[in-house]
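Hi team,

Filling in the usual template for the complex we talked about on Friday. All components are listed, including any nucleic acid strands or ligand strings, so the model treats them as one assembly.

SUBMITTER: L.P.
PURPOSE: interface mapping
COMPONENTS: two
RESIDUES: 604
SEQUENCES:
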Amino acid sequence: MKHVVLMAVAIVIAFPFYWMISTAFKSFFEATQFPPTMFPHELHFENFATAWGDAPWAGFFRNTFLIGIAVTLGELTTSVLAAYAFARLSFKGQGAIFFILLATYMIPGEATLIPNFVLVTRYLHIVDTLQVQIIPFLASVFSIFLLRQHFRSIPNELADAAEVDGAGHLRFLWSVVLPLSVPVLVTVTLITGLGVYDAFQWPLLVTNSDAVRPVQVGMAQFRTEFGAQYHLEMAAATFVIAPVVLIFLFAQRYLIQGVARTGIRG
Amino acid sequence: MPRPAIGATRRRRILAENLLGYILVLPAIVIILIFQFLPGFAAVYMSLFRWDIVQGAFRGLDNYQTVLVGGRAEEFWQSLSVTLTYTLITVPIEIVISLVLAYLLFQKMRGRGIYRALYFLPYITSVIAAAVIFNWLMNPSYGLFNTLLGFVGIGPQTWLDEPRGIIELIVGSFGATLPDWSPFAAGSPFHQSIFAGPSLALVGVSIYTIWHYIGFQIVIFLAGLGNISNEYYEAARLDGASERQIFTKITLPLLSPTTFFVATIATIGSLKAFNQIYAMTNGGPLETTKTLGYEIFHVFFQQGRIDLGAAMAVLLTLMILVFTVFQFRVAERRVHYG
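RESULT (copied from the run log):
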């Protein structure tokens, strides 16, 4: 009985993915047939090539990849450094700075959207670039909190031992703390990377040429231009979704644990 | 007696640690201040001025007046009502479904990991691409949803193009009409019977939303279930409690902090809804799916009214803040729980 319920729900949840792939292989004629066919009569592999050629997908993926690398590395670096300072150093004004972070955590993206838009368009003049999609995301309060919590759990004895050995803070961070934090670092990397891959509203507002637009904006654009070519639309959706599904297959443990522990909902 | 002076080496070490602290937090703090902290206050500031591409005259609370009771009031309240309706449809259904599934999944069984991974899959799927799939499923001419409706003898629907309420549609299919009561005047584009219910388009967006988020909810519920000590269950079984009693008398009450947490976080999510609306309906038909998140985008970006957009964003932020504070409290309890 339990298995029947779980299985039925699994089918309902998986079905949209099946339907996407199934439609992606059909001819336009078959995709718009009524009643629809469950399995494609012939497999039209060329749909993927056609969809890929109809829009500058290679550029969209390249942009997302570059932004993803820059944001993930940058955010990881700034967060690790700041988290270490909050977790294992004491300095004047630490409490006050930490309070600013807490307050920032309460401010939703909806509040900052318009001022940031005005800032990058009127003052920084970096609209329609890759930088504008990178710089605002080079630090994350959430990542700092997560890493700080973990760094604090590292036993003081290790720090004392490092000190006896004459290792300074940076040395201790690099050769003791980071190796002990690999799972958390993986979680932060995955959550940040997925965030970049899904980024939509900000790039939609601050870019207007294909040369710098990321994948999701490309997908929305493709839908507007080729929306009536359902089979191509589904082929495009397939290759947009495929990378995250692949990453998920390999890293689901980290992702699910990360979400369970942190409770963030994108 | 003067305190004994700290040794010079020690003083130097404290100074060095202070300096190192500032250097380490500096990069993160600069970015956070510029792009996340100060803009929060800038939004309030901007909402008090007139903006025509550049900053104009100080207007006090005039922008808020325009939004709440003036020329933009009708569309603002419409979008707020859409947002609340959307929340009321999606959040309770998501919670019930995910709670039941988490409860079933929590018991030791074969294939548990596979089910969990499968349920989680929609959540990591990019919103835009996934919304495009649902648009295709709900296509008025070729969509699979209409085929399924056909099996149970219901005629094809226009789904995301359908502005009429679902209750209106159901009542209408029996040839009856609803009383023509509406908070909006007869000539208003939003004029619709208060009994009409959410538009079929909004129901369509909600179906997608529920599909997208239940995996997330399940994972949180599973974590919550894992925090309930086994002793309670053992004691209850010894006392001869039935499975059903165990669920309603032990699981549900002890899980309530998690349930509150999930409810607030899902509510915040639906208050912010933008991407799915943009990809599925663009706020239409007849603005029946135009959530506040979309309305702000429309006003500030598409119409260029930065001032009114900022005022709306501040109002939305206040609503989100109420839930965030609430969620912080509950989150604290959730953490201390185990």
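MY TAKE: The longest helix of chain B spans residues 8-46. Chain B touches chain A through 97 residues (CB under 8 Å).

Thanks, L.
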